[in-house]
Amino acid sequence: MDEDTTSSEKMKRDSDIKMEIVLDIIKGLCHADSKVKEFVELCNSITPLTPLEITVLSGGLTNYSYKIHVADKAVFAKLAFNYALWNPDWDGKYDVVRTENEALMMSKFHTLSPDNVAVPLHICDVTHPSMPSSEMKLLVTTWASNDEQLSNQFIDGHADTRVASSLALALAKLHQEPFDPAFNDGVRGVYLNIVEQTLDKMKELEEGGRKEGLPRTTAYIDVLPDSPVALYEIAKENYGKREALVHSDVHGFNVLVEHKPSLAELSTFGPTGTFTLCDWEMCYAGPIGRDLGIMAAFPLACALSHAISGHPDASYDVTNFVEIFWSTYVAARAKTEGPTRACEMYRNAIGWTGMFLSFYVLADIHLEFLPLSTTSRDFEIVQDSLGILTLNLLRLGFSECTTGSTLPELKAAFAAAVDEQVMFVQQTEQGRRPSRTRRSSRLRESGVRVSDTNMQVPQSRTLRGKVMAVVAMKRIEKGIKGMFVKDVGEKEEGGKEEDARKDGGGEKGKKEDEKEMQTSRGRNGATTKRFFTSF
Asked: Alpha-carbon dihedral of residues 160, 162, 164, 169, nearest 10 degrees?
């Protein structure tokens, strides 16, 4: 028997024991005299023919999530461990007190947005003779009726903007609550360690290293006016800002929405547009842009995937979700904080989007769920474009050159940065093949639910065709001048650069493009083209 088989068997035994522990605890809670309605309902539904059952939903690396159910009654349970195996470089303690803080935050959010979070029912310490050295904590909550992850909509290319608006308003309420600056500080270390790992990768690229599949990104670093490492250091410092209570993990896999209706119902989304925000264990006092930025990263990656697959309508749809999400949030905060502070929040959101995209590009997080084959040439092109977008958004969010920019300027610059890469992937593949059938979410079809506890950090180691392309250029004109270095493109045979806007309007279009751009020099003296003038 090889070592891998032995390890797998140990993990299976460990999983089975923990599942039995959780089921036994909840069986003990289910009695007719319980003050918790959900436990009484479970108790009344149990019969010799319909026993209480438990199903593993996700987890294994820092916690397990379960559905405990009988007949049509159910509760949710999370068993948390005092370690974080999803980050193998982290050997520190991942204190289970985070689970108590998770319950506190869920209760607080329930008072602010009662329809959008599960309600904590029970929390307790867990010990077992077979695991004498393990510190574990069990959290039991109500079962959320919303059972589909929002990211499935981004993968499909149709996103419910009702969710974008209501999620933004709910977070705006949370971010205005009084808070303890030291709240849940124990979760900071494991995330900062991931930032350090990614920063090391960024340093390798800036110092002339190469990551396979990122030729344009590595070339772009040479001509970027700001040092990516310096920008990343600013972002790392920003992580320590204690501006508000933040969920800290608001990506589309942690937002549950109504199940997609059947074809017979002739509707793309559920009737109410409700959502449930889950997985609060990483909540802490942090920068506001973190919650806004992480929500945007996966939709933008899906937008490029749809664009390169010949589906500009789907690309536009998911980027529109991000625009509505951010605009709704900023409008709500401007009423209480004023336009200047709201603009700072928007800028911070852009920077944090760049931070999370850097994990996608340098650590391959979440990319396996894109509507693309990870072994395809399209996937490589999209990941490379995400690298360019990462650098531009880090610069927009954290460079001194955007300090004092107005909200319209920032919105235009963000849109231009996204549009530039959407147009690149569209036109790179334009004419090479007919549009392909859009791929629906494999996750929905398989019934698999994605959790951060399933994902492991590698060990240290939109628009609508040519008309919208013109609109994108106009956005740049009206936005922040000189923000973006022209994408250097991929080298063709003979050393020629492939223009990012090839076939964008014939000879006349090329001449007009040349008028809109000028030559300048990047940080390392390399000559490149730049939109307009630099700051």
From this structure: -170
Least reliable range by pLDDT among 222-226, 238-242, 494-498: 494-498
C-alpha closest to that of 180 among 275, 244, 238: 244
In the CATH hierarchy, which fold is given to the domain comprising 11-142?
Answer: Phosphorylase Kinase; domain 1 (3.30.200)
- Of residues 262 and 398, the one with the higher pLDDT is 398
* 22, 78 contact by CB (below 8 A): no
Tokens 């397990």 locate to: 64
Q: Which residues of 92-101 are buried (b: 16+ CB within 10 A; e: fewer)?
A: eebbbbbbbb
SS (H, E, C) 270-303: CCCCCEEECCCCCCEEECHHHHHHHHHHHHHHHH
Give φ, ψ of 121 to 5 degrees. Answer: -115, -35
Residues 6 or more apart whose Cβ sits within 8 Å of residue 270: 160, 257, 258, 259, 260, 261
Every domain of the chain and the residues it spans: 11-142, 148-481
The CATH classification number of 148-481 equals 3.90.1200.10
Report in angstroms the alpha-carbon separations of 488 from 221, 442, 501: 10, 34, 11
pLDDT at position 430 is 55
